[in-house]
Amino acid sequence: EEVINKIAAGEVINRPSAVVKELVENSIDAESDKIEIRVKNGGKDLIQIIDNGQGMSKEDAKLALQRHATSKIKEANDLFSIRSLGFRGEALPSIAAISRMEIKTRTEDKLGGTLLKIVGGKLQKAKDVGCPVGTNIVVRDLFFNTPVRYKYLKTTSTEMSKISDIINRLALAYPEISFKLSHNQRKLLESPGNGNRLDGILSIYSKEVAKNMIKVEHEDKYMKVNGYVAKPNINRASRKHQSFFINRRYIKSRILSEAVSEAYHTLLGKNRYPIVILTIKLNPILVDVNVHPTKMEVNFSREKEIFTVVRDGVKKALDKSDL
Ligand code: ADP
Ligand code: MG
């Protein structure tokens, strides 16, 4: 069991940003509207996620540390049920297996909460504590018992920029959640969480960028595209500033980037890319989506339809605005 956890962990939890992504996604799933992420030394020393979500009972928290213990029902409308098969109910035990973890959690219907301490996957302590409703997870000394993995970590600033990147994108996708990120006690981001997408964009980019974003709203028979794209004068030298979300999960997709490029067509010079934040809603029954858990790279069936709806949505937005 312990060995399996370590192997599973190595495959998907390959760096601090993967820990952050999994834990923050859990906080989002628990319906938090405030999520604070504290990081020390690029996540190598400490990652702490504090949310105000549903929390867990003592029994559920203990259960969550076992493999494949997921409270999330695999419904047909869970787009990522395929991904889920790969990694459902594995994040928490995987991370616990390769770190020193502390979980403090409380549900609304209880006056007190639970504290669990786990070292290298072994539960060392479980006791009652006073704590606010929600979940507070501390992950210390990541990879302390998998030295090979530790050796492959990049510099603190590289690891930290990967973490920032993920939180920035999540803040863009979930404007109704307030995200706060700090590194070595220095605040890097605080998104307002007021539901306004442009305010979210403003907390990450400059005023200049926020001022020059165009709203995208488009749908066809199968799917809906919403979000913002930048006017052609606001562009970047890479696709790093293009974020796509399918049914609110961040994904990477070359196809969708290409759809955007095609919509801009002659509006942009060679190797220039607009800032893009697009959310695609679709009925998961219609597409077969396959996500590689670490790469977040998606394979679709019906690629062509998705390509078309994104291209047309962006085109329509560009046509309507005065550039
Ligand atoms: P999954 O998210 O696929 O269910 P995880 O290993 O990431 O698997 O989490 C296991 C379970 O632990 C979740 O299904 C959920 O019930 C519980 N859990 C994890 N993190 C939180 C959190 N921040 N708030 C409430 N429950 C949580
Ligand atoms: Mg999870």
From TrEMBL:
It comes from Selenihalanaerobacter shriftii. Coiled coil: none annotated. The keyword DNA repair applies. This is DNA mismatch repair protein MutL. GO terms for biological process: mismatch repair. GO terms for cellular component: mismatch repair complex. Keywords: DNA damage, DNA repair. It comes from the Bacteria. The gene is mutL. Belongs to the DNA mismatch repair MutL/HexB family. This protein is involved in the repair of mismatches in DNA. It is required for dam-dependent methyl-directed DNA mismatch repair. May act as a 'molecular matchmaker', a protein that promotes the formation of a stable complex between two or more DNA-binding proteins in an ATP-dependent manner without itself being part of a final effector complex. Residues 201-319 form the DNA mismatch repair protein S5 domain. GO terms for molecular function: ATP binding; ATP hydrolysis activity; ATP-dependent DNA damage sensor activity; mismatched DNA binding. The keyword DNA damage applies.
